[in-house]
Amino acid sequence: MTDQDPTRALQDRALTMERASEILGSGDAASLELSSRRTGMSFQRTRMSADRTLMSVIRTALSLIGFGFTIFQFFGHVLELPGSTLKPEAPRNFGMALVSLGLVMLTLGIVYHLRYMQGLRSERALMIKEGLIHGESHYPISLTLITAGLLWLLGLLAITSMSFNAWPFG
């Protein structure tokens, strides 16, 4: 990554609608309008693609968190059986490692998503300001990001419960 401000970098390479008309010729206003609309829709498709990427991170993190907690619970009950050769801390340590891995993965996915969306929004805002696309449609709140945040809290609750054998899962 470069240290240059992404908005400034976009401004340096952006074309204005007038400059685009000069390049294409002034008689092609319909083509410019259609191109502007297609570019605006491509921003929406890119946003949805970023949401799908975050959903795949959520799916993997949920599997890790759920599997780690299940191992903790299952082998915790196996320890209570007579003749068990497991060390008492083994299920907790392995389960916490999987839950921690799921939380780290989810955290990285959320950070990546936020940074990517910030760059996409600044590029879109610049193109709207330059008149290259229409700013009629807005970016709604990402329900995927809200779900990722709630899963992160649930994972934090699970690892706390595993660590201290406390509420709500202890």
Report on this model:
- With about 170 residues, this protein is mainly α.
- It has 5 helices and no strands.
- The protein has helices at about 5-15, 15-25, 30-80, 90-130, 145-165.
- Helix 3 runs antiparallel to helix 4 and helix 3 (about 30-80) runs parallel beside helix 5.
- The radius of gyration is 24 Å and the shape is rod-shaped.
- The mean pLDDT is about 85.
Query: Number of helical runs?
Result: 5
Per DSSP E runs of 2 or more residues, the count of β-strands stands at 0
> How much β-strand is present in the residues?
under 5%
Decide which structural class fits the backbone: mainly alpha
Helicity, in percent? over 70%
Shape: rod-shaped
Task: Please compute the radius of gyration using only Cα atoms.
Answer: 24 Å
Give, in order, the helices and strands.
HHHHH
Mean pLDDT: 84
The oligomeric status of these chains comes to single chain
Top keywords for this entry?
76% helix; 5 helices; 170 residues; mainly alpha
Write the layout of secondary structure elements.
Blueprint: H1 6-13, H2 17-24, H3 29-79, H4 90-129, H5 143-164
Helix pairs in contact: 1-4, 3-4, 3-5, 4-5
In short:
This protein is an all-alpha fold. The chain has helices at about 5-15, 15-25, 30-80, 90-130, 145-165. The longest helix has about 50 residues, at about 30-80.
